[in-house]
Amino acid sequence: MQLFEWLFITSIIFALVPYTKHWILRYMSSRKLAVLIVIVFLLHLFVENARWQLAPAYLAFMVLTSNLVLMPKLPVWLRVLGVSIGVLAAFVTVLAANSFPVRDIPAPSGPYTVGSFNTFLVDPNRVERYEPSYNRGVTFRVWYPAEVAEPEEYNQATLFSEMYTGDFDLISFLFGYMAHIKTNSYIEAPISRNGPFPLIIFNHGLFSTLDQNPQLVEHLASNGYVVLSLTHPFESLKVDLPDRGIRTFSMDYPADVGFSSIEVSDGGIGDKISTIIGVAHSDLMSAVYAQIDLYTAALTDEEKQQVILDALLLEELQPLQPLLTAINLQSFFDIRSRVRNRSTEYWVEDIQLVIDEFETIDTPIEAFIGQVDLKSIGVMGHSYGGSAAGEFCKIDIRCGAGINLDGTQFGYNWSKPVIAPFLLVNSDTNLGGNDYAYYPPNDNFFDVHIPDSEHPDYIDALTVLPVLRMMGLSGEMPYQELATVVNELSLSFFNQYLKGNEDALVKHLESVPGKIIVRHP
């Protein structure tokens, strides 16, 4: 909690609890006490701004000031009720404020200061699938090694800034308080001239945001990498597209799919698959995708129906019973192929757009492009973004190294091996569940497991959202410890394969026994 938040809530509690209140009233009148609390409230309001987590305290404030000013005129029972409500509200506020704290992002440990800027690209060759009147446009943020002699000359970036820009809406209301959470990036600071630096492209998870991993991207940038994080519009929570305005997550499928999420349902097959984890998930998906490939390749409706009928009899698909019907399976095949796999392909096309057009991007930083090594490119992502990284590194020779942070692999090229050094990082959530898409591997493939971690934990911004841990939606490893493990693991991997630091990854894995379990090699 911030300074004036603490003072505000503490003053309310002290003025409500009879023992401390009577002690205070020995030295000042009730009206003077009310004025003092109002002053603290105004300081909080103008210095730190109001936030929704403190709403119960604001209620307690109104009850308290009314009580203090009108105390002689109110019946005893009403005063007791008001005090009880006020104290309860104050304690609820403390719980809410500590569940959603205003806490700065830990500083990176690399030798460089970190700069950042936002920019935008439009693809002249692709129509926006979700909004066909526009071409595909992507906003992205870049973090880079900076030279900052006087940090106070530059504004520091704040966390999740896209969530509270543009028109005021529910997302802005919920995330607006994060404008007080500072990251360690200085906006539009000069880039270091010690380059050229390797380029790493980061991809957020589905329904997430481009700065979901501020510690990771700043850690990489502070150690000599240019990190570009893409927003994939309509599949991110919220994005500001300069040529068309704010766009939020689309709850329906793109128009080119040919059906809506209401018109076609897989009868729960997709949800059932998500409950089957580990190697059993991998075995099931291997069989499912083999049938999807046959279904997609079929030229006529009759041939497609025959694929469905044959698939219903496969022993490998029987774990989907009792949902395994012709209608459900065909709908699942259509959704997986036309929605999920096509979406992964679309994200890969976003990555390719950025690489293709990188030298033409609009950047406010002098000599920026010349400090980026476009012959040394890494691609990574979390969850759905990790799947996009995996798919890219299966088909594009420009992938110098890739990392999938606990993302279930989608994509048309599921059966192809990655063609570049690759690191697959697994939580406890679905360990071994991606084997169908990555095995048998080529050389320089690493498959590791971080025990006591769950899928959402890999969003390192969750260090400022401990409420999820309170709700049991995370593993046992503390958020900050996991963030540090992932940061150092990613850095050592990229150092080995993008900077040529021999055995950097192997040496790092040997230095953290127990924290990272190696499945392969």
From TrEMBL:
The UniProt record lists the keyword Hydrolase: yes
Domain of life: Bacteria
Keyword DNA repair appears in the UniProt entry: no
Gene3D superfamilies in alphabetical order: alpha/beta hydrolase
GO BP annotation list: lipid catabolic process
Keywords: Hydrolase, Lipid degradation, Lipid metabolism, Membrane, Transmembrane, Transmembrane helix
Annotated TM spans: 6-24, 31-47, 53-70, 77-97
SUPFAM superfamilies: alpha/beta-Hydrolases (SSF53474)
GO molecular function, one term: 1-alkyl-2-acetylglycerophosphocholine esterase activity
Stated name of the protein: Carboxylic ester hydrolase
Natural source organism: SAR86 cluster bacterium
Lineage: Bacteria, Pseudomonadati, Pseudomonadota, Gammaproteobacteria, SAR86 cluster
